[in-house]
Design goal:
globular, 74% helix, 249 residues
């Protein structure tokens, strides 16, 4: 008769939750600092000249700072990703801004993924139970293409898709490239949108008015939404190219 393995020490169990505790602390600090009040178009309109002057004088430092802010926002699930993506396109151009956002978002998502996997791992899947069995099967059959499809299709929140693969034992070596590829089309579309809103922000700042979504109806916006429509059409193509593998009889 074998003796069951002893339970891990309480200290080790607590250390497992350290990554999530750090993320929650950082998220709380961001809200305490009032950052939720500046991640909007009104703040960008009011500060546009100051920000562009700062970038002109300290381009590299500004780009690095923006990247770190984006990583932190995604890693803490702070609700500012879309606004920051538009800001990146506005401040650095759609190509540079979009590229930095893709890399930064992938880094932030990977940190959150690792934190969830370290702290909870299979425990989250056990709690979710049979409701996630179908998604679990898809990940186990072809994690790479499944993750790309879910990243491209605007069905699940970005935050949820950063954590969900941690339930299904997706390796980091698969998670990172699939995330990088999956978020790129939408990211560049939003960055392109940001690169075309200068006149809207200038008018709003001069008039002291709030910037509304309706104010962003520009030719650039039409092109950006066309790009997003193409993004929405990609998942069926991916599913056809990478059909779900059937278990061998």
């Amino acid at each position: 008769m074998t003796t069951p393995d002893p339970a891990p020490p309480r200290k080790n169990r607590l250390l497992r939750f350290a990554p999530v505790a750090v993320i929650l602390a950082a998220l709380g600090a961001m809200y305490a600092a009032g950052l939720q009040d500046i991640f909007n178009l009104d703040w960008l309109a009011a500060q546009r000249d100051t920000l562009r002057a700062l970038i002109a004088d300290h381009y590299a430092l500004s780009l690095i700072s923006f990247a770190l802010i984006y990583v932190l926002a995604v890693a803490t699930a702070f609700p500012a990703a879309s606004m920051l993506t538009i800001s990146g396109g506005f401040l650095f151009g759609w190509l540079v801004g979009g590229s930095v956002v893709v890399v930064s978002a992938t880094c932030g998502a990977s940190l959150l993924f690792l934190a969830a996997r370290t702290s909870f791992g299979a425990g989250l899947r056990a709690i979710a139970g049979p409701r996630v069995n179908r998604l679990a099967e898809a990940f186990e059959n072809n994690a790479f293409s499944t993750l790309i499809v879910l990243r491209l299709a605007p069905v699940f929140p970005f935050f949820a898709m950063n954590i969900a693969p941690a339930l299904f034992r997706v390796p980091l070596s698969t998670y990172v490239p699939a995330t990088l590829i999956g978020i790129a089309p939408g990211t560049f579309a939003f960055a392109y949108l940001g690169s075309g809103i200068d006149s809207v922000l200038a008018s709003a700042a001069d008039a002291g008015q709030s910037v509304q979504i309706s104010d962003l109806v520009t030719p650039e916006l039409t092109i950006a939404f066309g790009a997003l429509a193409l993004v929405a059409a990609i998942p069926p193509v991916i599913r056809k190219l990478y059909p779900r593998r059937r278990p061998k009889a």
